[in-house]
Design goal:
The protein has helices spanning 2-9, 14-46, 56-84, 109-125, 128-157, 159-167. The protein is an all-alpha fold. It is elongated, with a radius of gyration of 18 Å. The mean pLDDT is 88.
Length: 178
């Protein structure tokens, strides 16, 4: 966790944060959706997997998931940048604990939003391979959050984080704090 502490204590200029977000954004907003819509559906065909195509229903359900996901993901990112002087990237972490905005409803609104958006894209693609990729991505992301990020936040923010963790849902947004 020493590395995370060192990252937290560094002061990173806003321009560097913006550049880093654009680079990471290319991966999360460009490359992964392209895999889900273009590359992985081709695996379905080569592996002779059935299509999950239900016509307009794919677009309606998928579109709703993408909208909900993008709302939570972008709200989280903006909160981190504007209210906590940091980014979602571990090497450019927030300088203060966020408990308001989307973080009032769950501790991991960006993770929730990301998974919803990617699942929506996979539903639109109607691809079993795409859905399988999202499930695997989700499992790995949750492992990272539980095994690394939660410990790092507890070290950085101490009792205020532990109190927040005790009363705020982990992933699925709820009514806010109990």
């Amino acid at each position: 966790m020493n590395l995370f502490t060192r990252w937290m204590n560094q002061k990173t200029p806003a321009v560097v944060q913006v550049i880093a977000l654009f680079i990471a954004g290319g991966l999360f907003v460009g490359l992964i959706p392209w895999l889900l819509l273009v590359v992985l559906p081709r695996l379905d065909a080569s592996w002779r997997l059935p299509a999950l195509s239900f016509g307009l229903l794919n677009y309606i359900l998928g579109g709703l998931l993408v909208l909900v996901g993008m709302f939570f993901a972008w709200w989280s990112i903006l909160s981190q940048v504007l209210k906590a002087q940091g980014t979602p990237l571990p090497m450019l972490p927030t300088q203060s604990l966020l408990t308001g905005g989307p973080f009032k409803y769950c501790r991991n609104p960006m993770t929730f939003g990301t998974i919803c958006a990617y699942l929506g894209v996979a539903v639109i693609a109607g691809s079993l391979a795409s859905i399988g990729f999202v499930v695997l991505f989700f499992a790995l992301l949750l492992l990272y959050v539980k095994l690394v990020e939660e410990k790092e936040l507890a070290l950085r923010f101490g009792q205020p984080y532990l109190d927040y963790k005790r009363v705020t849902p982990f992933l699925i947004p709820g009514n806010g704090r109990k």
